[in-house]
Specification:
Largest sheet: 8 strands, mixed, barrel
Number of helices: 17
Helix content: 40-55%
Mean pLDDT: 77
Number of strands: 10
Radius of gyration: 46 Å
CATH class of the domain at 217-455: Alpha Beta
Low-confidence stretches: 138-186, 194-210, 462-466, 481-486
CATH topology of the domain at 217-455: TIM Barrel
CATH architecture of the domain at 217-455: Alpha-Beta Barrel
Length: 486
């Protein structure tokens, strides 16, 4: 309190003096008192303005000093930090990238191995928990003494006609039973009552396909793989703008879909070979479309396990770099695979970006990070029509934006939305109301096989080497000509 009074002592003294002087003056001369009070207020306002200007000047000076100090501090921190090379050593960067790719591949292999071991453990546990079937009891010839007690307790069965034994009806593994001599006075033996059959475990219902894993692998090794195409159309014009390549396997004369043979191929480690064969056929179809002048895109869905096989993606990158006609090819990966990409897999997909298209397939929810997908180069998102039309009440699968705004949000980032699995014609108007620009399904066209003459087309010929230039005549000096003449 005392420092405050000392600071404003002058103002307090001036105020008391004005009160002592102006008090009596206001009683005897009100006009003079008013003029004096106004003059005093003007002087006080001038003093306050002067003080404010002084404080402002001091603040500006302090701000300049603080700015100078911050610049010096930033300069000192910059000088203390070690200089970073702008370009860096190219060899070191290449080694670091290669090491990152190998670490990513090793982590993927470990995850795949963990999944396989867990699956095998669960199968072994289920086999151990399954009760063993009891062997069926063999029919034996019982004596009257052995069946005397059951005959008393059970109702007598209907008499059967005795059948003469024949070699056709007799079992080959049993010895012929010799008939026992029966006395004429003995009563006829009662027919033994059938024993109750013990309950056996009910076998599992057979799968909708009757092919075993061995038959599937045998058909795959025999190259019974076929490629079918299903168009992607625009809404509402229904104009074909793209195709999706679907794998079909012919087993014992029947075509089965991937849901039937993919588990067997995954168990035997043939998924990468499946993708390699399908990509070869898809490349032939893309070249055929390019020769016809068509701009339609062909999409093929890779298996998630192929991401852990670097040779497949590197081979695809080489083929795309050598053949510009493959720019109409697009590879699709599940939504979970796009979310789980590591550094090595991103490095393998980077050479393909800009050369072929990327697509998100088999979506699990509608929570799409549009900026992240655009940064990865994804140009197409495929969502089941059931998820768009009837999303359900699970909030974890719903997007933060309205479903009718999903297609425009993706379109602003250069990504087109495709509704898949459209089987009912009544769902098409609802998709149009949601502004879905593209659709695919049996309501528009079913998958159809590619003609054999298209797949039998010869590979693209390499450019013919230019003929060697004729050697120009050698110019020799005139002296050497004269020397030869002599």
């Amino acid at each position: 309190m005392i420092p405050v009074l000392r600071r404003y002592a002058g103002l307090l003294a001036a105020g008391l003096l004005a009160l002592v002087v102006l008090g009596p003056l206001a009683v005897f001369a009100p006009a003079t008192s008013a003029l004096a009070l106004g003059a005093l207020a003007a002087v006080a306002a001038g003093l306050a303005q002067t003080r404010a200007a002084t404080l402002k000047a001091r603040c500006d000076k302090l701000s300049g000093e603080v700015d100078l100090l911050s610049r010096r501090l930033l300069k000192a921190e910059t000088a203390a930090a070690p200089p970073r090379p702008e370009g860096g050593d190219a060899a070191l960067r290449a080694e670091v990238e290669e090491l990152t790719v190998e670490l990513g591949l090793l982590s993927g292999i470990v995850r795949d191995l963990t999944h396989v071991v867990g699956t095998q453990d669960s199968e072994i546990a289920s086999l151990k928990a399954r009760p063993e079937p009891r062997p069926e009891p063999l029919p034996t010839v019982a004596t009257p003494q052995a069946h005397a007690e059951p005959a008393r307790t059970q109702a007598p069965p209907e008499p059967e006609r005795p059948a003469s034994p024949s070699p056709q009806n007799a079992a080959p593994s049993r010895a012929p039973i010799e008939p026992r001599p029966i006395a004429q006075d003995a009563p006829p033996e009662p027919v033994p009552a059938p024993r109750p059959i013990p309950p056996r475990p009910v076998p599992r219902a057979p799968a909708p396909w009757a092919e075993s894993e061995a038959e599937i692998v045998r058909a795959f090794e025999a190259d019974a793989l076929e490629i079918h195409l299903q168009p992607v159309v625009t809404l509402p014009q229904r104009k074909v703008t793209a195709y999706e390549a679907l794998a079909r396997l012919r087993v014992e004369g029947r075509l089965i879909e991937p849901e039937a043979f993919l588990p067997a191929l995954e168990r035997y480690g043939r998924t990468t070979e499946l993708d390699r064969r399908m990509l070869q056929r898809a490349a032939i179809v893309v070249r055929h479309l390019a020769r016809r002048g068509s701009e339609t895109m062909l999409t093929y869905g890779l298996s998630p396990l192929s991401l852990f096989e670097p040779g497949l993606l590197r081979e695809l990158a080489r083929n795309v770099a050598e053949d510009p006609a493959l720019a109409g090819l697009a590879i699709a990966l599940p939504q979970a695979s796009w979310h789980g990409l590591d550094g090595g897999q991103r490095g393998l997909l980077l050479p393909l970006r800009g050369r072929i298209g990327f697509s998100l397939d088999r979506a699990d929810d509608l929570r799409f990070d549009v900026a992240q997908l655009a940064g990865l180069g994804v140009g197409q998102v495929k969502v089941p029509a059931e998820m768009l039309l009837r999303p359900g009440s699970d909030r974890r699968r719903l997007s933060d934006i309205a479903i009718e705004d999903l297609a425009p949000a993706l379109a602003r980032a250069g990504i087109r939305l495709v509704a898949t699995g459209v089987t009912d014609e009544a769902d098409v108007p609802d998709l149009i109301d949601l502004d879905v620009p593209y659709a695919q399904g049996a309501a528009f066209a079913a998958p159809r096989p590619v003609r054999a003459e298209v797949l039998a087309a010869p590979p693209p010929e390499a450019p013919a080497p230019s003929p060697p230039a004729e050697p120009e005549p050698e110019r020799r000096p005139f002296r050497s000509v004269l020397r030869r003449a002599v």
